Amino acid sequence: LPSVKILATGGTIAGSAAKATDTTGYKAGAIGIQTLIDAVPQMKDYAEVSGEQVVSISSNNVTTEIRLKLANRVNELLADPKVDGVVITHGTDSIEETAYFLNLTVKSDKPVVLVGAMRPATAISADGPMNLLEAVQAAASPKMKGQGVTIIMNNRIGAARETTKFNTSNVDTFRAPEYGWLGVMSQAEPVFYRTTTRRHTTKSEFDVTGMTELPRVDIIYAVAGDDAKLAEAAVKAGAKGLVSASMGNCSIPNGQEAFYEPMMAKGFPVVLSEHVPTGECVLRPDAIKKGFISSGNLNPKKARLLLQLALTKTQDIKEIQRIFNEY
Ligand SMILES: NC(=O)C[C@H](N)C(=O)O
């Protein structure tokens, strides 16, 4: 049987509530990995499974330091010819961030699958056990090779870059808007319908070996008529770059643009992403001239991670735009 390692970080998949009817008000990350594994003995029909507890937290508390630790551990594990795939149990609030981060920093074409749940492990019809079983089945499958880091929940296989949380409580919360799922889990097997064209894993230029921190990047939300006070505070706090969660087609209020302009003239990177959920940010010619970088259709939280990694390589605006065009 293939060997699959499960790295556990907490989340609702490891959540515990007082009553089986409670689907809110539970404690995320309360149950250890061995208990989660023991609850799904069927996994052993598909893989030799072993677990490792990395942290036990709700995913709103996953830090850059934890993501770097995970990336380095996944790389260590997958460099071992005896390990065929890795599953990471994770809270759904930031699962897409960690998945995208690993998509950019894992140096292997072996499967890396992130999985979570929307109902705590103690709930009636908890979704965690089936999700975990399918994640392990996928991580054990050679069909997952080279597909990049994926999120698997509710039978769907989603690319880390495009999968995003859509509903705050429903088990069917994840969507891959516009570009769709990579495939589905069917009869314990991954079935693929498409593949991502963006660079990831073995084709990524980012190497975080031994790193324990990354440059600070903050996200500044844009609403009509807003000023630049928050952006100023972010720079004061040590931000080395900013991501604007801008409005339709990357428009931002004049008050913010006026603050960014002289900063960009000095080489400070400002990436325009959008809080509109889908679509490309197409920069006006004068916005390009001023030095703005477009995130394309990458959402603000993922644009933040890509900018953090880009800043480990370069400060050059054109080079950072090249990175956003390719990942
Ligand atoms: N469904 C979940 O996993 C939500 C939880 N707050 C988490 O992200 O850890």
TrEMBL record:
Name under which the protein is recorded: L-asparaginase, type II
One example GO MF annotation: asparaginase activity
A Pfam family assignment: Asparaginase_C
Keyword list, A-Z: Hydrolase, Signal
Residues reported in the UniProt entry to bind substrate: 59, 92-93
Domain L-asparaginase N-terminal: 4-195
Keyword rRNA processing found: no
Keyword set includes Zinc-finger: no
Top-level taxon of the source organism: Bacteria
InterPro entries found in the cross-reference section: AsnASE_II, Asp/glu_Ase-like_sf, Asparaginase/glutaminase-like, Asparaginase/glutaminase_AS1, Asparaginase_C, L-asparaginase_C, L-asparaginase_N, L-asparaginase_N_sf
Catalytic residues as annotated in Swiss-Prot or TrEMBL: 12
GO biological process: asparagine metabolic process
SUPFAM superfamilies, per database record: Glutaminase/Asparaginase
Protein family: Belongs to the asparaginase 1 family.
Membrane-spanning segments: none
The Asparaginase/glutaminase C-terminal domain, residue ranges: 216-324
Species, as recorded: Sutterella parvirubra YIT 11816
